[in-house]
Amino acid sequence: MAPDTLNVPLPPDLVRLGANPAGKEEAIREAAQLLIAAGCIDPAYADSMLRREGVANTFLGHGVAIPHGMVEDRDLIRRNGIAILQVPGGVLWNEGQTARLVVAIAARSDAHIAVLRRLTRLMQDEERLAGLFTATDPAVLLAALSEESALPVATGPAVDLAERFEWTVDYPTGLHARPASVWVETARAAPGRVQVRHGDQTADAKALVALLQLGLRMGDRIVVSAEGADALARMRAAITRLTTKEQADAAAAERKARVPVQGWTPPTALPAIAGVGASPGLAIGPVHAVLTAALTVPDVPESLIDGGNRLHEALNRTRQQLKALADDTARRLGPSEAGIFTAQAELLNDTDLITRACQLMVEGHGPAWAWHEAVESGAATLAALPNPVLAARAADLRDVGRRVLARIDPELRGGTLRDLPDTPCILIADDLSPSDTAGLDMARVIGLATGQGGPTSHTAILARTLGLPAMVAGGGGLLGLANGTPAILDGQSGRLYLNPTEADFAAAHAWIEEQRVRKARQEERRGLPARTRDGHAVEIGANVNRPDQVPVALSQGAEGVGLMRTEFLFLERGDAPVEDEQFETYRAMLDALDGRPLIVRALDIGGDKQVPHLHLPHEENPFLGVRGARLLLRQPDLLEPQIRALYRAAKHAKPGALSIMFPMITTLTEVETLRAACDRIRAELDAPSVPLGIMVEVPAAAVLADVLARHVDFFSIGTNDLTQYALAIDRQHPELAAEADSLHPAVLRLIRMTVEGAERHGRWVGVCGGIAGDPFGAALLAGLGVRELSMTPRDIPGVKDRLRDSDLAGLRALAQRALDCETADAVRALEGAWDGAVDGAGEGRAP
């Protein structure tokens, strides 16, 4: 064995099969004797290995133990080596722990990490690991512990796997996090190894961080290889399918970049730092630069079992948190923005990252320190990459790392900002994490400028949500500004103007006043009903999740809440809310609305909304499985507490204020069973009757609308899901999401069919899906006969204006033209002509 590496085949004399030690100490001494005989360690190192057991648990899990000596005794190691002791009958390691494979390690520095990576990978393949416990040929164990597959990135000569193909990277922005996530997902579906080689660097294709660390850019030549032709074919298909989307995204970004940036223009020639506009608005005040406070994570060692359990729980809770964020972002901002959170969550599945943390815990470090060290090491590698898109992912890795840290130790929770002045300032920073941005004191921070980041970063998204003027990508020169320097920040054009004159200040204040007056006028119009020029009214509601979101919705012109998504009561916590807690939330929502209508959707879990703490069975295809009403009917413990809480709230509400609707209805039997449950609970509580409606999210419900309408009071169409099921496209699929267009003629015809079925029995139809918030989509829906639209609050003013500038005859003619179209693109093409008709004639008649 070479003196400085463990990355070579093991000699057979370091493997002992069929051992039967009397206990742990005898097992350790027997394994140590193999190392002594091979000349790897001084005999005294065996005692050091036993002393290690007194301060740390070396049981790695799944029947594998890795005894090794104390750090201070490394001088007793003559050369690196490992010895394998197979104990088929098992040996008690600690209480409740049985070791069947004892891998004794003697290593200077970190040379043993390669073996730990291999062991961690083997522990994920339980069938193969079980075979090692009883193997009768030493070569089987030697091969398993000599494989290089567990090393995500290796330097030096690299060897491709059996099946391979060469590919030139044709993604304009290189391999960044979102396409890399698709590569990883595809690779993980393969039973064997899959790797990507660029020159002499090789990455495990199942490890996201390792792939990103390759730093692949447009034009790079790579070799993708796999164990098995099927796995390679799937990888080739996944990689090449993404080309069209990546090129389309890059072209769209280029077109956007060519659009002249408009914003405030100072009357005098001012020095300025140029960045990228991230959130519109002007901020006037002194700058204040902050340095990111270094996070000190104490190293508190604990048993490997306890530390491993805490890390495992923290990772699961963080995945749950990020899933909720991705789900909410997809509904508010679209699947592309949600992909940022999805890619961030994928970092938590990275084998190399988790393995490194486990290795550090095995060495005796605490879980928080070990996790932080692993994250910082990976982030530093990413930050050093020459590709700025990939280097920016270091911030994502550090942010997700801190989320996990906060779960391991709540005292590590919190932002990194300190020493902000008491007076309002424009905050300058190299970069901010989402948690930093969300925690900003808006009374002290009036604008934000960062040296790094992009307009679609988490920081930019949160700044827009907060209404905080912001620019990103201003460069390192920002941090060189002296605190207190007077400045004007234009978040629209992405300019930080320095040392303005009195004339500049006056012009900026005048511009802000103009915007305030314009906004006030918009506020006045927001309060007006969405009534067409010929008197046809469309009700406008808001999609909200919590009572504290109601004031914002009302300020934007909402006439009520058309969709309260109750699943967020379950998603944003670690346990299910009890009946009383739900009752208080629904009552608070009704109080906030003060008699305005509230439509509450019963728990909609399944598909893309999974709740780990409910411990629901795993489904291969959850979108076609037990979700929505199907789940509620199978789990009365979820349905009945919610219905009881809603009827209790109805007793305190104004008559007609509350309505209940059920998701994912496909059959009449589901409707009848749910209505019967509601009638029974209402009678038990002596509660008033409330309208009961259903979501139309699958084609079956649209086709049966005339039948279902006899048994319900209203319909609400979820166009996102209806589009997904009608077109057989997962609306969050990274390659196909753009094709899931809710203005597809097939979807529009299903909507029209629903409206016609409802009208036969005097029922009304609403829409709470994505196209309700698109002014052109809203115009089409109104023309199709939809009576109520519910949307994200920020979309309400534009939709109301569009409907007020139209007349019903024109809307109906527009809808008919759309129904006659053959493609979604043809429907979209109607929008330009429609805009021209509105602007030119002022009446919005169909051209």
What do these coordinates show?
The chain has 847 residues and is α/β, with parallel strands linked by helices. Helices cover 45% and strands 16% of the residues. The chain has 31 helices and 27 strands. An eight-stranded mixed β-sheet has the order 11-18-17-13-14-15-16-12. An eight-stranded parallel barrel has the order 20-21-22-23-24-25-26-27, surrounded by five helices. The chain has a five-stranded mixed β-sheet with strand order 1-4-5-3-2. Helix 16 (458-466) links the parallel strand 15 and strand 16. The longest helix is centred in the N-terminal third of the chain and has 30 residues, at 229-258. Mean pLDDT is 81; it is low at 1-9, 148-156, 255-261 and 839-847.
Chart the SSEs and their pairings:
Layout: E1 15-16, H1 24-37, H2 44-55, E2 59-61, E3 64-65, E4 81-94, E5 97-106, H3 113-123, H4 126-134, H5 138-146, E6 153-154, E7 163-168, H6 177-188, E8 194-198, E9 201-204, H7 208-213, E10 221-226, H8 229-258, E11 272-274, E12 276-279, E13 282-289, H9 304-332, H10 335-347, H11 351-362, H12 367-383, H13 388-391, H14 393-408, E14 425-429, H15 434-438, E15 445-450, H16 458-466, E16 470-472, E17 486-490, E18 495-498, H17 502-526, E19 530-531, E20 537-544, H18 550-555, E21 561-565, H19 568-571, H20 579-593, E22 598-601, H21 629-634, H22 636-650, E23 658-662, H23 668-685, E24 692-696, H24 699-703, H25 705-708, E25 714-717, H26 719-727, H27 745-759, E26 764-767, H28 775-784, E27 788-791, H29 796-804, H30 808-820, H31 824-841
Parallel strand pairs: 1-4, 3-5, 13-14, 14-15, 15-16, 20-21, 20-27, 21-22, 22-23, 23-24, 24-25, 25-26, 26-27
Antiparallel strand pairs: 2-3, 4-5, 6-9, 7-10, 8-9, 8-10, 11-18, 12-16, 13-17, 17-18, 19-20
